[in-house]
Amino acid sequence: MIPWEQSSRVLKIALTLALAVLGAFTLWHLYAYYTYSPQTRDGKVRADVVALAADVSGRVDEVRVRDNQVVKHGDVLFVIDRVRLANDLAEAKASVATAKAQLAAAEREDKRYRGLADVVAPQELDVRRTAAETARAQYEQAIASLDRARINLERAEVRSPVNGIITNFSLLPGAYAIAGQPVMALVDQDSFYVAGYFEETKLSRMGVGMPATIHLMGESRSLKGHVEGFAAGIEDRERVTSTGTLLANVNPTFSWVRLAQRIPVRIAIDEVPKGATLIAGRTATVVVDDSVPFLPTAERH
Fold first, then answer.
1. How far apart are the C-alpha atoms of 28 and 70, rounded to whole Å?
2. What sign does the dihedral 28-29-30-34 (CA atoms) show?
3. Which structural domains are found in the chain, ordered by start?
4. Which of 8, 31, 111, 289 has an alpha carbon 20 to 30 Å from 141's alpha carbon atom?
5. R_g of the chain, CA atoms, integer Å
6. Cβ–Cβ < 8 Å for 80, 59
7. Is the pTM above the cut of 0.85?
8. Which residues form a coiled coil (predicted)?
């Protein structure tokens, strides 16, 4: 029989080898998990942001909302110079009436002179016809101005184009709004999604439709979602176009130092727990369940 000391030594060696093998297996498992498992801590909550501007310029008469307020599609946000725009509409209507009367008179004269073609000089007929054509053009222009004035009055009330939340808003009554110049940002509540940036080594285990779990920083409850799509391209920061030859000037890289590129993956949000707050820009961790079937690569986009 093996003496106790020798048996103890063999046991220690065996235990050490077992721990070494277990440690190596654990390290390999962790390496494989972080390298190939479809999960990332580099995620951001995104949403469509509408830069809202007035369609007409003018003094702001009313402001009916405040910063960070939730609004519905069609809600009036603020009103621009309704009195002036109403006066513009009245003037446009008067201009149409005047142009219509002038057109009727010019057409009567043209018709009368054409009836006297045998006794009137051709030059006079041309003058009357030109006058009638000019009057018609002026009438059509007045109609167009009336339509524009009517639209401007309708757009005096600036309404929300989406269901959303107002942010970065500081407009006050009496301020002058310039057409086309944004005065607030409106975050579309129906457009929230998560942009997860996954290493390219993980894409082979991911596909459209795969369920995903989303963990927001600071939230104890997780959100449910699914993979909606993959970015078709990312910027190559080392690709610099030469102005002389139009050839790419690519910086040299070493084959033993290659970093995996991060590819944006769009994650649709399917379920938000009660009380969880979606804020564009929040940090998120995304874990994709790769145990379910997915669409082939060719159908990802």
1. 50
2. positive
3. 82-155 (1.10.287)
4. 111
5. 36
6. yes
7. no
8. 82-159
